[in-house]
Design brief:
The structure holds two protein chains of two kinds.
Chain A (H helix, E strand, L loop, with lengths): L9 E10 L4 E8 L2 H5 L8 E6 L3 E6 L10 E6 L3 H6 L7 E8 L12 E7 L3 H13 L7 E7 L11 H6 L3 E6 L9 E2 L2 H8 L6 E6 L2 H13 L7 E4 L15 E2 L2 E2 H4 L2 E3 H6 L5
Parallel strand pairs in A: 7-8, 7-11, 8-9, 9-10, 11-12
Antiparallel strand pairs in A: 1-2, 1-6, 2-5, 3-4, 3-6, 12-15, 13-14
Helix pairs in contact in A: 5-6
Chain B lengths: L3 E5 L3 H11 L2 E6 L7 E5 L17 H4 L3 E12 L2 E10 L7 E6 L1 H15 L6 H9 E6 L25 E6 L2 E6 L2 H4 L2 H4 L1 E2 L2 H15 L11 H7 L4 H8 L7 H4 L7 E8 L2 E8 L20 H19 L11 H5 L6 H15 L1
Parallel strand pairs in B: 2-6, 6-7, 7-8
Antiparallel strand pairs in B: 1-9, 1-10, 2-3, 4-5, 4-12, 8-9, 11-12
Helix pairs in contact in B: 3-4, 8-11, 8-13, 9-11
The chains are: A alpha/beta, B alpha+beta.
Chain lengths: ~280, ~350
């Protein structure tokens, strides 16, 4: 970020583009200014605005943890104008990055606790940042259970690193909505699998991200398992423009998702104006 | 009386010409013969400022242009490797000084809302800050309040000089002008001859008289609770906003509305990223790429607009209401939605259900 002009992106070079699914790709980018890249600091869960000059900007979570700083990673689902163009990027292309923005996950407060990640589809992107950060600081956390689901095996992102997650100390539970030839993991919706897994709520924090319908039923499930509102954390998505709490559109009442969020506990969300 | 000058009505244009040589001046001028279409424009010789009625649009444009370049960009071939394309970013030049002549107290007050959002951080909008610091206001003592005005209800008033650098008081045959700030004061002598005892006294009398006036009778206290209590009451909001056309004029003429969009325009290999005024009354304002919209109908959008001005902003900025009572949203609304009525109703219903 430029201190004197919060709208001015840093120029960055695309290092690698990884095709994740038919509509999700992952970018690895490096800031052109080596000093800025070296000194780049952020908290897992913080986001960045990616610029395709001439098309526009969109907000994405920084998908790689601060413990792995060879590049900054962003997973992008092709949905609108900007993401359409992002999907056409190749290694070597120039883009703009405004980051870090937003608040990030309270990882300090999670130390010494068991962790439950519940992710659906592209919702795994912000969870991956925190998951890798925790695996890189494995001794600080207790059990780490990850329930990650998608429609089909082809819709799961990061499948190439599942083995690493497991060997790094995560209890990874993968699920897809329906049976698929060759699929040896679980079958069923994420909320159902959560019930079957039934991780203990004792001294545990649940971090949930996915489509709204999944979140709704996961919340019911977590309540049944005895999770309190302040043990549940989610990260929101809104249409954003400035990303710095000025332009006005991502508000929920007096809270600005770009500035005060995107990470909120469920107890915070219940106090906020319900305009999700 | 020291420091006060008198500008005869027929010498106003030449006074502004002298002033305009020192600092670019913006004045309220009429685009047509009727009461509509009075807009602040850069002064040019021969312009006759409209000083006897409120402008339709406000001088927001001077500090917060309707369309403003945030940066320019250009794709260029890397000189050492023509196989690669580089990007060049350039920031726009700094703004120049400006003086808004004949702004009303509400016009100036509007920027107090902007200041909190754009300059207090954590991120500071330096393009706004730059223009804000370089713009002076010659505030007019307002004697033209109409039925839509309610500035006294929201912490201002027709004789409010807050944020002003010069004070213009209309008197018989012309205007008495005095300095309010050091920078403003330095332009006073330029504008006219020293005011006579009688002219100065007439100005003081007028100021005292107008400062005793209470414009509007809205009491915005208790609205924060009302907004909370009635948030889910869709029937209430629907009844308030049923006739809304979603045209967004209330936001465009509002001195405190600051929401903006950011878009890119490109031709060949170069272009600019700019911000332009946006409106929370438009459906696409919050619509996400997926099609999901957290404020899908005018009901939610209007609820947010009223909430932002009278509840959310005060919650965030220690009680400050993001409304300056200029009445433009009421006056300009094609279907005459009255924000005062909504606010009053919010309170009443809140009491009723308590």
């Amino acid at each position: 970020m430029h201190a004197h002009n919060p709208y001015l992106p840093e120029l960055a070079t695309v290092q690698e583009v990884i095709g994740e699914t038919h509509n999700i790709c992952t970018l690895r980018v490096v800031l052109n200014d080596p000093e800025k890249m070296k000194n780049f600091q952020f908290t897992p869960g913080q986001v960045g605005q990616l610029s395709i000059f001439g098309v526009g900007e969109s907000t994405f979570v920084i998908n790689s943890p601060p413990t792995r700083m060879d590049y900054l990673q962003f997973s992008v689902m092709r949905v609108g104008e900007v993401t359409q163009r992002i999907h056409l990027l190749n290694a070597g292309d120039q883009i703009g990055v405004r980051a870090p923005l937003g608040n990030g996950f309270p990882f300090e407060e999670m130390k010494g606790k068991d962790i439950l990640f519940v992710g659906g589809g592209i919702g795994m992107a912000p969870l991956r940042t925190l998951l890798l950060f925790m695996l890189d600081n494995r001794q600080d956390y207790g059990d780490i259970t990850v329930i990650y689901g998608a429609r089909s095996p082809h819709d799961l992102c990061y499948s190439y690193e599942f083995d690493q997650w497991r060997s790094g100390g995560a209890n990874l539970v993968l699920t897809v909505d329906t049976e698929h030839p060759g699929w040896k993991e679980r079958v069923g919706f994420v909320p159902t699998v959560l019930k079957e897994e039934a991780p203990s709520a004792h001294n545990r924090v649940a971090i949930v991200c996915g489509p709204p319908i999944m979140i709704k039923f996961v919340l019911f499930g977590l309540k049944e398992l005895g999770f309190e509102d302040d043990q549940i954390i989610s990260t929101l998505e809104k249409r954003m423009k400035c990303g710095v709490g000025i332009c006005g559109r991502c508000n929920m009442g007096s809270t600005y998702v770009c500035l005060d969020g995107p990470v909120f506990t469920y107890s915070e969300l219940r106090e906020m104006v319900p305009e999700l | 009386m020291s420091g006060k000058v008198f500008i005869p009505q027929d010498k106003l244009a030449s006074a502004l010409e002298r002033l305009n040589e020192k600092v670019p001046v913006w004045v309220p001028v009429s685009q047509g013969a009727d009461r509509w279409g009075i807009d602040f424009k850069p002064f040019r010789a021969g312009m006759v400022p409209v000083m006897d009625r409120q402008s339709t649009a406000l001088p927001k444009e001077v500090i917060f242009p309707q369309v403003q370049t945030l940066m320019t960009f250009e794709y260029v071939k890397a000189p050492e490797d023509p196989g690669r394309v580089q990007l060049k970013l350039e920031e726009p030049p700094e703004a120049g000084n400006a003086l808004v002549f004949g702004a009303r107290p509400c016009d100036v007050r509007g920027f107090f809302t902007f200041d909190r959002v754009f300059t207090e951080g954590p991120f500071v909008d330096n393009q706004y800050k730059d223009r804000r610091e370089k713009t002076l206001f010659a505030v007019l003592l307002c004697r033209e309040a109409d039925e839509a005005c309610f500035c006294s209800s929201v912490g201002s008033g027709p004789a409010d000089t807050a944020g002003g650098d010069l004070w213009i008081t209309p008197v018989e045959g012309g205007y008495v002008v005095e300095g309010l700030s050091e920078r403003g004061g330095s332009y006073v002598q330029l504008l006219g001859d020293p005011a006579t005892e009688e002219q100065a006294a007439a100005a003081s009398r007028s100021q005292e008289e107008v400062s005793r006036q209470k414009v509007g009778s809205l009491d915005p206290s208790g609205v924060v609770q009302g907004q909370k209590d009635r948030f889910e009451d869709k029937d209430f909001w629907r009844s308030m906003v049923n006739q809304c056309l979603g045209c967004g004029v209330c936001t465009y003429v509002c001195p405190t509305c600051y929401c903006f969009n950011i878009t890119d325009e490109m031709r060949h290999s170069r272009g600019e990223r700019m911000r332009s005024w946006d409106s929370c009354m438009f459906a696409v304002y919050t619509q996400e790429a997926s099609g999901h919209n957290p404020r899908p109908t005018k009901l939610e959008r209007y609820r947010n607009r009223v909430g932002h001005k009278f509840s959310y902003f005060p919650e965030k900025y220690d009680g400050m209401i993001a409304c300056c009572g200029c009445g433009r949203c009421i006056r300009s609304c094609p279907v005459s939605i009255d924000i005062r009525k909504v606010v009053e109703n919010l309170k009443e219903r809140s009491h009723a259900c308590a």
